[in-house]
Protein 1
Amino acid sequence: MYNVTSVKHDNKDDALGPQLLITRGKLNLLNKGMQHFLYMRSLEESCRASACCTSLYLVFRLYHHQAIQSK
């Protein structure tokens, strides 16, 4: 699992200004989002690998696409 513990922003000439600050709540949300993404990705890969699962894979892709669109 990937786990984001800190965010560092060193480029002080950037348009965002010095030090990009991210709160602990936002980091937790980012971690959960990354874990969800990796889980969905592994589900997708395992389903695609199985030939008998093709129709389920297509249904999964459609459902996942609609879930993203509704957010």
Protein 2
Amino acid sequence: MNRVYESGAAKKRKAKEEQKKIDKLPKITGFLKQDDITSKNDETPKGTADLQENVIQNESVDLNPSEQSELSVATQVLINHRTEEEAALRSTSEKIESYSTDIALWGEINEKLRLYWLQKNPGLCSNKDKDFSKSARIYQEGDKQKVRTLNKSLFQLKLQNNESRSRARETGSLENALTIQQKNEKNYWIQVLRRITDTIKFLASRGLAFRGENERFGSSQNGNYLGILELLSEYDPFLKEHINTYGNKGHGVTSYLSANICEEFIGLMGEKVLACIISELKKAKYYSFSVDSTPDIAHLDQLTFTVRYVTDQGPIERFLMFVPIEGHNAEYLTEVVVKFFKDNDIDINDCRGQSYDNASNMSGRYSGLQTRIREINKDKFDEFLEKAKSFTDICESESTSEPRNRRRSVKLTRFEGESEHTQFTGDEKLKIEIFYPIIDSLCSNLKTRKTAYETVNDNFKFFTALPNMTYEGIKECCEKLARKYDQEISAENLISECLHYKHYLRDTRKNEELFIPDLYLQLKKEFLTSTFPNIEISLRIFLTLMITNCAGERSFSRLKLIKSDHRSTMSQSRLNHLSLMSIESDLLKSIDFDELISNFAAKKSRKKVF
């Protein structure tokens, strides 16, 4: 079929009909409301007013020769006025600020100025609501002339519901729109991560397993982690919608519900708890530690670290971590302990006590771990070196040159023989070979512990008897304690403080039995630390000393619970993080993880699949 082309007359007739339809449409100026100009300074002559009306309407007009002449004169006046303003602007451009609120003084409009006013409200512009008729320009388009100028309506957009809003609002730029979108996405994932954090805290504090046989929602074998999230979603519409949208989508879809995100959060939360403990320890300054070892389910020896320090609420013991070891000799254990404190930026010179079991490699008198740590920190423990020197002096004073007598050996004759071996009954053999050695060892250890307790008691017990002590007694006890801790305590200042503290206790603790923990808490509660600094340090050192090594034994119970038969291949870092959150569950509940969640959501930006 051949194409039919319209003739030129038909096209002209069709164009005239369309133009008539357009002319019948209402003008856009009918929807705009013009403000009355009341200021005398803003009054313009008739010709200029006509120009303004024509500019506002932005329509093309046909002008006869007389009107053209009048318009040319008015336009020439405007151009001359504009030229004068430009000259004045050039003369004062050096005195004008870069971001003036006067539009006429903006000068060259660059990208920096545009970004500045996009972030500001146009209401700050001093001339936004003024008349801009003097900015009129006449443009020639063929045989027609158009007059355009700046109008205040250009600062606003007219919406369909007749609402006006600033076209230069801060949210109007593309960059800000993307920023708002990113912020909304971040807030969405923060809400998801908060629920994940609470679930991890619940499972870790109870030492429960996280994973199951699969990682699918709706499966009864998906483990405790996904199971608890499913339970929460039954009462949490947000989480339920999130699981329905992103759950079971597989790789490539961001959901933050995968095992990788869970493991990453376990590590971050464990590090946060450890950092909080170390921060408290450094703030307390003085501490004591306890180490002990036991094999785990994988037959790997784990060395547990427990520290004791004093906060404003009193003494507290915290578990730090398990360290795998490959040997049990004292030299190797010393290297492990020193390296542990160095890696965690803990000053070993602030250590004031140690606690071990009775193994010779731990508490051996001559070459055990305890003795080696004392050699590193020789000035901070008891008077080991002073006693050694005193023993040396005694040996030198008692040395003589008396002749040594050789013992005479006894030989059996022909008619003599060895006596028969004594025959023991079962009860006698039990007593001699088992019961008596145990009792001897027990008595020896009790005597050693008694000596240690008596030494500590002799150094600090005078604080509980201050109200009834004389000046000579206070001076003697203070000097003795200051000699032991010469770098922390000043003997002269301690004596002066004890004399004042004596009268303070008489007034506040009349006829009351005094205990060092109560005295320390009283100093903190009544803000007397700055008044009695040396007394506070002395009491803090006493409360820092380890009483038992039970904290290490309790950590082994958690070790057996967390690293069980079903989780024997657990990594060392995961074991430490879960053990720390389980043992220190009270601290875990008190820590605010909002900052961690926010940083995680900001750094772990993912691409969403739409």
Protein 3
Amino acid sequence: MRRPGPSSSCRHGSAALPTLLLLLLLLAASAQAQQARTRTDPVEADALKGVFDKIGREMWPSWFSSSVDPCTGAATDDTDTDIDHNPNLNPAIKCNCKYQNNTVCHITKLKMYALDLVGPIPEELRNLTHLTNLNLMQNYLTGPIPSFLGELTALQYLSLAINALSGSVPKELGKLVNLVSLGISINNLNGSLPPELGNMVKLEQLYIDSSGLSGPLPPSFSKLTSLKILWASDNDFTGQIPDYIGSLSNLSDLRFQGNSFQGPLPTTLSNLVQLTSLRIGDIVNGSSSLAFISNMTSLNTLVLRNCRISDNLASVNFSQFAKLSLLDLSFNNITGLVPQALLNLNSLSFLFLGNNSLSGSLPSSIGTSLKNLDFSYNQLSGNFPSWVSPNLTLNLVANNFVVSNSNNSVLLPSGLECLQRDTPCFLGSPQTKSFAVDCGSSSSMSGSDGSVYLPDDANLGPASYYVTGAPTWGVSNVGRFMEAFERDYIIQSLNASYTVYSSTRLFRNTPDSELFQKARMSPSSLRYFGIGLENGNYVVTLQFAEISFEDSRTWKSLGKRVFDIYIQGERKEQNFDIRKEARGSYAAVQKQYIIPVTRNFLEIHLFWAGKGTCCIPSQGHYGPLISALSVTPGAMGSDQNAKRRALAVCVTRKLSPKHCYRILGRVERGLGCGVHCSKCTFCSRDVFLLSCSCLVCLGSFACC
């Protein structure tokens, strides 16, 4: 019997299998051939090569070999398009290869981030006309922002922040109508913002902090209604904060600290109910209320520091601010009681109400998260509540509390009684006539000036104070380093990597390098106190050296630290810049003042007024810094030795008779040398050297 053969369908399937395999092979070959035919636009390839040739030759990418097209490999990988947040792709490009039937690639993203590139922005960039994202952040690019960037109209993200760019902002950037994010923070720009930038109506993020800009904010910015983030701190913007800022209702993060804005604050800010972070500070004049914040109940961070606010905390219903974690209303003129509802907020961790006119007693309870409270420099009084504990950082300096063993004060760091208003320790019965402190150090040392510098390594937090066991001096710190989750308030001299501590670096302009190896730093307000001093005139010597910023041509050198110096409540220095005065980092600079002490008490106050960069070499690196200080009796240079040194310098330095008479006259009156350095090597051209130790500087360092 004949066996049945395979069915027709089986016979056809068996025959079709080789055909299907052949078809797949042909398709794969076709795809490979298609990919082989896909090439980067030659104009863009040449432009990219030119960019790297000018500013990036040292990190020449592998795709610049003669046989490799730039738009290959990771550049065309659609699964990883966010090159800005991928540290393994730097430098990097991204391409779109769907042009002309998938035969032409255009470069759409270029990232050259934190590579310490040096030089001007290359002209060749103008030929990368399909760029949507250009990231040149954290380099050392110099020269102006080129106007041709305005021709790259496809750009959505442009970051030129943290560079050494100079000149004005070109009005041509206003042509970038598709721009979503613009960053020009931390540069050396000048002039005002061009009104043409108001044409960037899709802009959601604008970073112009620490850029060097000045003048009023242009009225055309009222058109930027898509803005969500506006950082404009540390500039010299003038006039009032415009009313139209209140119409930018999509804002979630607004920062206006360290400018020259006039008060009062516009009431239209009350419309910004989507804000989660608001930081305004350092308003020049006028008076404002707190009423405008009443509806900003989405706030997580609220800083209205040094804003000339005259109001009562009871004018705001703080119980509605359930998300608030940090509140800073310090350095205002806020009066009345501290509301219980404010301290009961369960999300609140940091509360800064210092330097106001608050009165009455402290509330009876606090929220579970509140661990850092500053009430210093108010008019508070009464008993200490039961919530006072060693687990809190609580600053009650300069109030009217009576400190005794019966009112929970034993739970506070000792010495608070010596730092209350009108009742400092040893009032009328002085105990000392000098002291010296090596700020941040854990051991004492003898200085070349004969002073013994005592250690100062107390673990101060965001709202802390410390008084020595035998109370001769104390220190108070207030403030939180914003954006820095953990930041020490004592820093050490670092090597170039900023990761390894060093204790052997030699500092210029001083025989006492050891004094400068460590320093105490504060994000807001740092005070040193002399306790039980004899009344009379004192020479207060403050010593500084910048140890956070490098001097080389790197983005890590672009940081700037600026603060004010007050002694006995009188401002002695405004916008003091250590590195500018010392002509570089790791160089000592000394400031000296004749200060009268009349109530056996001395206060030295270093105050941050919103100036300086925020985040170099890392986030939360700003505010006052001091290396050492000494307080000694007498007037500067009033002895015969000072006169002899002055005469010797006049002769050896061949100073003009006018200069010599000036020196001798000031020495005779006990006012210091007062020599103006017009041709200096290490000292600033614009300062007067204010002590006869400057005569050593004149002889040893050829300052004048």
